[in-house]
From TrEMBL, chain A:
It comes from the Eukaryota. Belongs to the adaptor complexes large subunit family. InterPro entries: Adaptor_Complx_Large_Subunit, AP4_complex_esu, ARM-like, ARM-type_fold, Clathrin/coatomer_adapt-like_N. Residues 40-581 form the Clathrin/coatomer adaptor adaptin-like N-terminal domain. This is AP-4 complex subunit epsilon. It holds the Pfam family Adaptin_N. Residues 721-829, 897-955 are annotated as: Disordered. Residues 756-773 have a biased composition (Basic and acidic residues). GO terms for cellular component: AP-4 adaptor complex; endomembrane system. It comes from Gossypium barbadense (Sea Island cotton). Keywords: Golgi apparatus, Membrane, Protein transport, Transport. One of its GO terms (biological process) is vesicle-mediated transport. The lineage of its organism: Eukaryota, Viridiplantae, Streptophyta, Embryophyta, Tracheophyta. It is found in: Endomembrane system. Subunit of novel type of clathrin- or non-clathrin-associated protein coat involved in targeting proteins from the trans-Golgi network (TGN) to the endosomal-lysosomal system.
From TrEMBL, chain B:
It is found in: Endomembrane system. Gene3D superfamilies: 3.30.450.60. GO terms for biological process: intracellular protein transport. Keywords: Membrane, Protein transport, Transport. Its main location: membrane. InterPro entries: AP_complex_ssu, AP_mu_sigma_su, Longin-like_dom_sf. Belongs to the adaptor complexes small subunit family. Residues 3-141 form the AP complex mu/sigma subunit domain. GO terms for cellular component: cytoplasm; endomembrane system. This is AP complex subunit sigma.
């Protein structure tokens, strides 16, 4: 059934498609489409357009929208077409409408009626067309209009209708779960449908339902397992086979469902072990689809309650993936490794070099996936290498979204596992320097807080050292040309607080630098404000220390500028600075105590020092103060007090913006009315205040402070090495113990023995020393961080980091080498390329092979003297395809079976089914010649600009 | 949800078929297509057939001059989607016989009909070629 049967299109349509197909640039394409829009606008509203013609117009509209232009002038005609009696025209109408309109479009209301009518049709194809439209066009409000009919159709004799009805119900569930909540049992019923297609489709809604509420579906575990068993045993119709795999897409969906149901449920998981194990054994690992199913098995195994045998099978598959030459399989392998590593961390070790290869691969996708894996396996022993690598990568990329993500991961890992304060500061500096504008402002605040508070250890000396090193590094960094605003804020703050604290740098050094900053970033008011306040602190400390203050000339000019600034904030800071400089040492020491950023600010809430003043005023006849509880027309001041309170107690600095002032709407309302608002029906304008009053006290005092406090504590806790709780699951706790008991070598022997294990495994491969070092640092102690004994804070602190580093359990290495040997047994994926091994550059990638084959055709056709010379040579080189291919369909078709990726992956004999399939297409050379002739007859000629249009997709 | 969109784009970056399973405005579609086509077409054949985007992934496969790009959620099985693309091409091939870019251009609606049978609500609902093609072929006879 070649395409010639469908050529009742008009010359006009063919010309349009032809010219679009041959357009060489987007601009040219746009011109054609704009022209077409003009034509259609005129034509489409002509009276009495024949149906076929109208259908063509509508498809031309689809083209217009597909190519990025607005075709809304014709929407109404598409809507009208859905009313048509002819099935083909009707379905085209529905298709166009689903492509053009979203569910909230005004025209939908005109279609609902038609849909209702069509759902009742005797012709099941009409019903199916309507159900397709239901899935795309019905929104929450229109669900009730079609729901009863859709429910009836669930029992339709035609399986195609039942399948689509189930999907329509699925759609309703997605749109508005409450509207069909009483109907979800239908999904369970349809799972037992006689037709595998309906059953397969039902898995989609069930998957979503189970993801939302696992516990209600535990009873289905047995059913899912038995379905999966039947599928794997080829009990479904052959029509569902794909590349000799029985219904692989259904298998994958079932494995996904089982993964959900078995997660953390030992009993449910035990029901699954046999069938998953069977699939591991049966799966054809030489085809892409087989590997897709195997990958899903690994996902399932790593999600359900662990089973040692299955984990072993999963590990075998992963090592096969990682050893493969195909980047796709490597990618899947890295992903799978990331899943399995949570359950059995030791498996990473055998793949260390493969992982490093992926990390250094030029393919960005693979690299990112590998970083994700590294992120998951970071521990205090390898954090330095990993974060270092991550930052290098972060610097090298331009994609801001990913840069942000990786920056926040670096920060997270650094906060969690940092081996030393020095390293932490340096790491944060690098992150800020290169991605400062992308990281969350909270990270900056955290860093300031960490520097101010020290790191939870009661060692003032260490804190001082840390601050000095921070100051030093910041002064160095300030030399860099362009720094992110957030980073500058941190720098200014730290310089202001600690710039002169250790006496290494003089006040004029620091103030000079701060003035430079304010000048260099004069557009950034926040940075300027930070710099001004920092200046004030430096001068204040100088005054308090009773040293002579010489304001630098550049500083003076900066102040003059700021005093006249348009920003009131900057102005105020400048005035404050001026005022502080004029005060004596004692007063300055009171208002600007040195290193007091962590002190609580005590606020005299009763303002008792004003009592005398008030007394005096009242005696003179002033009005007494009315507490705010008696003045309901005013804002509730106690709320603000609460806020103050929580801020003062949580930390000294306040970073978030102040509340926006609330409009005091009620102040105009007479007192009498206001006094009794609680009883009297509240007039309209009272609402904002009411809600404000009730919500205000709770929000800042609970949520707000909890958040701020949590951060603070979280950081400290994370910081202390000893409090780190390894993310291990129950399964590895046993292996951990044995590891702890064994003797421990020193750091150097780790590296060498690591090398030995690797060498003994694969002696013929030479691995660069650098790579081995990297491997050792990444994986060297992958099983040892868990061992840090939970012996309380003090003890853990005593065991220094160096000691910890040297604790490398030998036994884990032995385990690794043991594992490594069997891992070599399964056939290497490299064999896959062998059947067609004529060239050395064979890849698993089907495209490559396809191209190679086509090259061959091209050569053959060139020898035959076929007309392939009409193209320019560079196109020939770039795209090894051929216009002559059309005339040489004979060759191409013989080869088409081979170009199929599944077949090339197998020994030649198994190619039979593919060949039979392609022969079922009919007499191919004849078929294609006819097609070609017809196309030429219509005026589309392969000798024109884009001969690719004629190339068969499959070879 | 699973599948978010299916695109067919030739190697000049021109869209040949676009089906979205979540609503995007014309401008959003144009921007999205421009961005991902640029990304995918620049990759060579040794590299993975997967590209990670903001909060989704693209699985793509090239057939002659035509790229098939499928946008999927992050938890989707990439290899399975890669094979789904192949299944789609095999199905079109069975229908058109040696399917080529022009077949899809001249019979855009049929290519869409096949997709409508295979994917609903962003889920793969039918993978039997016979079941996919029967309704399409019945339509032709009307």
């Amino acid at each position: 059934m070649g395409s010639q049967g469908g050529f009742y299109q008009s010359k006009e349509f063919l010309d349009l498609v032809k010219s679009i197909g041959e357009a060489r640039s987007k601009a040219e394409e746009d011109r054609i489409v704009l022209n077409e829009i003009e034509t259609l606008k005129r034509r489409i509203s002509e009276p009495d357009i024949p149906k076929r013609k109208m259908k063509e117009y509508i498809i031309r509209l689809v083209y217009i929208e597909m190519l990025g232009h607005d075709a809304s002038f014709g929407y109404i005609h598409a809507v009208k077409m859905t009313h048509d009696d002819s099935l083909l025209v009707k379905r085209t109408g529905y298709l166009a409408v689903t492509l053009f309109l979203n569910e909230d479009h005004d025209l939908i209301i005109l279609i609902v009626n038609t849909i209702q009518k069509d759902l009742k049709s005797d012709n099941y194809l009409v019903v199916c067309a309507a159900l397709n439209a239901v899935c795309k066009l019905i929104n929450e409000e229109t669900i009730p209009a079609v729901l009863p009919q859709v429910m009836e159709l669930l029992a339709h004799p035609k399986e195609a209708v039942r399948k689509k009805a189930i999907m329509a119900l699925h759609r309703f569930y997605q749109k508005s779960p409450s509207s069909v909540s009483h109907l979800v049992s239908n999904f369970r019923k349809r799972l037992c449908d006689n037709d595998p297609g309906v059953m397969g489709a039902t898995l989609c809604p069930l998957f979503e339902l189970i993801a939302r509420d696992v516990n209600s579906y535990k009873d289905l575990v047995i059913s899912f397992v038995s379905i999966l068993k039947q599928v794997a045993e080829r009990r479904l119709s052959k029509a569902y086979d794909y590349h000799q795999m029985p219904a692989p897409f259904i298998q994958i969906k079932l494995l996904k469902i089982l993964a959900l149901l078995g997660s953390g449920d030992k009993q449910a998981s035990e029901n699954m072990y046999t069938v998953v194990g069977d699939i591991f054994r049966k799966c054809d690992s030489s085809s892409n689809i087989g590997n897709a199913v195997l990958y899903e098995c690994i996902c399932c195994v790593s999600s359900i309650y662990p089973n040692p045998k299955l984990l072993e099978s999963a590990a075998d598959v992963i090592s096969r993936f990682l050893k493969s030459d195909s980047h796709n399989l490597k990618y899947m392998g890295i992903d799978a490794l990331g899943r399995l590593i949570k359950i059995s961390p030791e498996i990473a070790e055998q793949h260390q070099l493969a992982v490093i290869d992926c990390l250094e691969d030029p393919d960005d996708t693979l690299k990112r996936k590998t970083f994700e894996l590294l992120y998951k396996m970071t521990k205090s022993t390898n954090v330095e290498v990993i974060v270092d690598r991550m930052i290098d990568y972060m610097i090298s990329i331009n994609d801001n979204h990913y840069k942000t993500e990786i920056a926040s991961r670096c920060v997270e890992l650094a906060e969690q596992f940092a081996p030393s304060n020095q390293w932490f500061i340096q790491t944060m500096n690098r992150v800020f320097e290169h991605a400062g504008d992308l990281v969350n402002i909270k990270v900056a605040h955290n860093l300031m807080r960490l520097i101010a508070e020290g790191f939870g250890e009661d060692d003032d000396n260490a804190d001082t050292k840390l601050r000095s090193s921070a100051v030093e590094s910041y002064l160095r960094i300030l030399g860099e040309p362009k720094l992110p605003s957030v980073f500058l804020q941190v720098i200014c703050w730290v310089l202001g607080e600690y710039g002169t604290a250790d006496g290494m740098f003089s006040a004029s050094d620091i103030t000079g630098k701060l003035c430079d900053v304010a000048e260099a970033y004069s557009n950034d008011e926040t940075v300027k404000a930070y710099a001004t306040t920092a200046l004030m602190k430096i001068y204040a400390f100088e005054i308090a220390a009773r040293r002579k203050v010489d304001m630098l000339p550049e500083c003076q000019s900066l102040m003059e500028e700021l005093l006249a600034s348009h920003s009131t904030d900057l102005q105020q800071r400048a005035y404050e600075l001026q005022a502080v400089i004029g005060l004596d040492a004692h007063a300055v020491a009171c208002i600007m105590p040195s290193d007091a950023s962590c002190e609580d600010i005590e606020v005299d809430r009763d303002l008792s020092f004003l009592n005398d003043y008030i007394q005096e005023a009242i005696e003179k006849g002033a009005q007494p103060y009315i507490p705010e509880s008696e003045r309901s027309g005013m804002l509730n001041i106690s709320n603000f007090r609460n806020q103050d309170h929580h801020e003062a107690s949580s930390h000294g600095l306040r970073f978030e913006a102040y509340e926006l002032p609330k409009p005091a709407v009620q102040s105009r309302i007479p007192q009498t009315l206001i006094a009794s608002t609680e009883i009297v029906p509240v007039p309209e304008p009272m609402y904002p205040r009411e809600s404000y009053q009730t919500t205000m006290p709770s929000i800042p005092s609970d949520a707000g402070s909890a958040e701020l406090k949590l951060r603070l504590e979280g950081v400290q806790k994370k910081w202390g090495r000893s409090t780190y709780t390894p993310a291990t699951s129950t399964s590895n706790s046993t292996s951990q113990k044995t590891v702890n008991g064994t003797s421990q070598g020193d750091g150097a022997s780790t590296v060498s023995s690591m090398r030995e294990t690797y060498d003994s495994r694969k002696p013929q491969v030479e691995v660069s020393h650098e790579k081995q070092k990297l491997a050792a640092s990444l994986f060297g102690g992958s099983s040892k961080t868990e061992k840090s004994p939970a012996t309380g804070h003090k003890a853990a602190k005593a065991s220094s980091h160096v000691v910890e580093k040297s604790h490398v359990p030998k036994s884990s290495l032995e385990v690794a080498s043991e594992k490594a040997t069997p891992a070599q047994q399964p056939p290497d994926l490299l064999d896959l390329g062998e059947p067609t091994a004529t060239s050395t550059a064979l890849q698993l990638d089907p495209f490559k092979q396809l191209e190679g084959l086509l090259d061959a055709t091209e050569v053959a056709s060139a020898v035959n003297g076929a007309p392939a010379a009409s193209r320019s040579p560079d196109i020939m080189a770039l795209y090894a395809d051929t216009a002559a291919g059309i005339h040489n369909k004979n060759d191409a078709d013989l080869l088409s079976g081979l170009s199929n990726p599944s077949v090339t992956n197998m020994p030649g004999t198994t190619a039979m089914p593919q060949v039979t399939q392609s022969s079922s297409k009919g007499p191919n050379p004849k078929d294609s010649l006819e097609k070609d002739a017809l196309v030429r007859q219509m005026g589309v000629n392969p000798s024109s600009q884009n001969p690719n249009l004629f190339k068969d997709l499959l070879g | 949800m699973g599948i978010r969109f299916i695109l067919m784009v030739n190697k000049q970056g021109q869209t040949r078929l676009a089906q979205y399973y979540e609503w995007l405005t014309l401008e959003e579609r144009r921007a999205l297509e421009g961005e991902i086509v640029r990304k995918c077409l620049a990759r060579n054949e040794q590299q993975c057939s997967f590209v990670e985007q903001r909060n989704y992934k693209i699985v793509y496969r090239r057939y002659a001059s035509l790229f098939f790009l499928v946008g999927v959620d992050n938890d989707e099985n990439e290899l399975a989607i890669l094979e789904f693309i192949h299944l789609l091409v095999e199905t079109m091939d069975r229908h058109f016989g040696n399917v080529c870019e022009l077949d899809i251009m001249f019979h855009l609606e049929k290519a869409h009909f096949m997709l409508e049978e295979m994917v609903m609500n962003g889920c793969i609902v039918e993978t039997s070629k016979a079941n996919i093609l029967t309704p399409v072929q019945l339509l032709e006879k009307t």
